[in-house]
Automatic annotation (TrEMBL):
Keywords recorded for this protein, A-Z: Cytoplasm, Nucleus, Protein transport, Repeat, Transport
UniProt protein name: Importin N-terminal domain-containing protein
GO biological process, one term: protein import into nucleus
Domain Importin N-terminal: from-to ranges: 23-124
PROSITE patterns in the cross-refs: IMPORTIN_B_NT
Amino acid sequence: MALEITQFLLAAQSPDASVRTEAEANLSRFQEQNLPSFLLSLSVELANNEKPIESRRLADLLLRTLGSAATEARHTSAQVIAKIASIEIPKKQWPDLIGSLLTNMTEPDRSASLKQATLETLGYVCEEISHEDLVQDEVNAVLTAVVQGMNLAEHSPEIRLAATKALYNALDFAQTNFENDMERNYIMKMVCETAISKEVEIRQVAFECLVSIASTYYEKLEPYMQAIFELTSNAVKGDEEAVALQAIEFWSSICDEEIELQEYGSAESGDSEPPHSRFIEKALSSLVPMLLETLLKQEEDQDQDDSVWNLSMAGGTCLGLVARTVGDSIVPLVMPFVEANIVKPDWHCREAATYAFGSILEGPTIDKLSPLVHAGLDFLLKEMKDENNHVRDTTAWTLSRIFELLHCPASGFSVISSENIRQILGVLMDSINDTPNVSEKVCGAIYYLAQGYEDAGPSSSLLTPFLTDIITYLIRTADRTDGGDSKLRSSAYETLNEVVRCSNVAETSNIIEHLLPVIMNKLEQTLQLQILSTDDREKQGDLQASLCGVLQVIIQKLSSTDETKPIILREADKIMTLFLRVFACRSSTVHEEAMLAIGALAYACGPNFENYMREFYPYLEMGLQNFEEYQVCSITVGVVGDICRALDDKVLQFCDGIMKLLLNDLGSNELHRSVKPPIFSCFGDIALAIGEHFERYVPYAVPAMQQASQICAKIDVNDEEFMEYGNQLRRSIFEAYSGILQGFKNSKPEVMLPHAAHLLQFIELVFLDRERDESVTKAAVAVMGDLADALGSNTKLLFRDRAFYVEFLGECLQSDDEQLKETATWTQGMIGRVMVS
């Protein structure tokens, strides 16, 4: 931890020699005894604006520690300087830092270790700050020092490694330099030369630079692609795995860029054509064979661990991206490899062939793939009996890909028919008893097979005769004890959920009704488990979470029709009692799943859910106060909305407590910001439920909404994550206003009149934002209609003074989105009625 050293630093500058000597001795002793703490104390001093300028100036000796003989001291100093720089440079409070560091690189008498530490520092600084924080002259000087540091002839491997790492972090700063042909050529020449260094670690970082350049400067790569292809090809074929993986990652990054250009490029670039260089298409005939070769480099036990990342996995992933990039063109390049290897005695060949086939199923058209899949399906089903575990594992994965991508009866195409469904399910039911890793992939195949029948009309009847067997096998799989961790069990229950969710309820309600007590009994059994350790508690929590998840899906399915809802209502008391007992376990995962299931039960029970509120309310309060596990808090907020819709005005007796907690949540700096938008939406739900009684909360809720709208006005458009949050916040504020306005409409609309001008101003601000999300547009248009509808002629002057709404509605009426057009038409009618009143 940092110590208070201000007095020592000031004393070290005293005119009194004895005071100065003693202070210097104290500082030296501190440095020798605990260097990291010493550096941290100096950094705190340097970064604290309230400290005396004299002590902060002396703390600048931190920079000198970069020249220390101790490697650890240099490394720690580099990190500390970068952390301080991240605070000071954006505020222009350390203007000479970059100059001081660059001096270390240009002065001839500076040691190699100092240069290495300086390059390390420059790299960390570039990682910590934004490219907007440096002027172009500083960027040029940094890049020059870094690229020169990579020079083989002049520097040691340690300096070159530090320089290459620094370049990796500085690439974002180089936009202007990449626009200049000469500067770009020099940077690319140094990176390519460094990629063939003797030292493995330097080669690896050089390829990492190429990966970053691929995504940041894609449009500038054309002149270098031939050289890069040779570099990557040689690395993949013969270099160390760490280097080869980065070489493959380069091509994956190129695919990512080209996929994005194909999907979004035209929309984003307006009239100008996106700079699509079609590098993958041009390299295809050489790139695909290179990737196919990597598939044969499997590790013996890679099927036992999904987190393994090796050449084979990277090559297959890249092959899949290539397929998405070029579509049909990849098929004739891959199928000869598949056909040549699928029947070879060596399992490596059979597994590679299957992996290759599974990897190219997304991208090519159905017309191109259909004959191949129809022809290969029989073979794959037989391959589920292969003697080798790897082959069976990859085959099950490939089958799940086929069912995910080529089984969609609702759109008129499926590889599954009445002729082959019995054979397919027979193989899957048999193979679900295989080793845990294969069984888990089989669960995935069943998951997508069931999912294909969602909203499939009469086609979904194909699955009905097999449903009882499928459910039996999945429950048996979930009960297996040989899975090691709980991954197989989770997969089995997730698949069971999907099977129930996508089944044809008219035909399967009887089966699902029989499943309900089975799952309830299993959940009850978890409450009797003996808990002797944290591990036991965790396993109990995971199992309860899975079972609560299944109950949620069953409740939703059976309550979706009037004919089957009584099944849930009959069992509601028992179900709710179980959930309340589960809450007593206090595991957050369970809390989440049980909360979601209670939300579903509230929807099913409607006003009768009031019977459970007294016992449930303490857990609702606990959920709303769970700042640490914020997902629990967020889900609980959603359940409050479900309960409001179920109980309507019967929720009033609990609203004082709920509103107090929600307002506390909004005011908390501890609570994760993602929970705050759902809270505003929840205000709307509460207001709709209790109508005029919401008046008592308006003085607290509306100012909070207005304050949040001011945050929306300050959104940084360059920060994607914050932009997404801003969209959620704006949408939820509009939803809150809509709910409140509709709640007051028939009784006390005048309550919202003082806030109408602020709301219209906020809508106009959103209208002026051309980057707004479509869901925000819909919510803004809807609340404008609600304002006119609820307040009537009282808003005439407001709308007359803010005529932006005419253009806004005109824009929405031109939209391709039918729902938006419908909402805009309704809003236009509401405002029109006001204006002629």
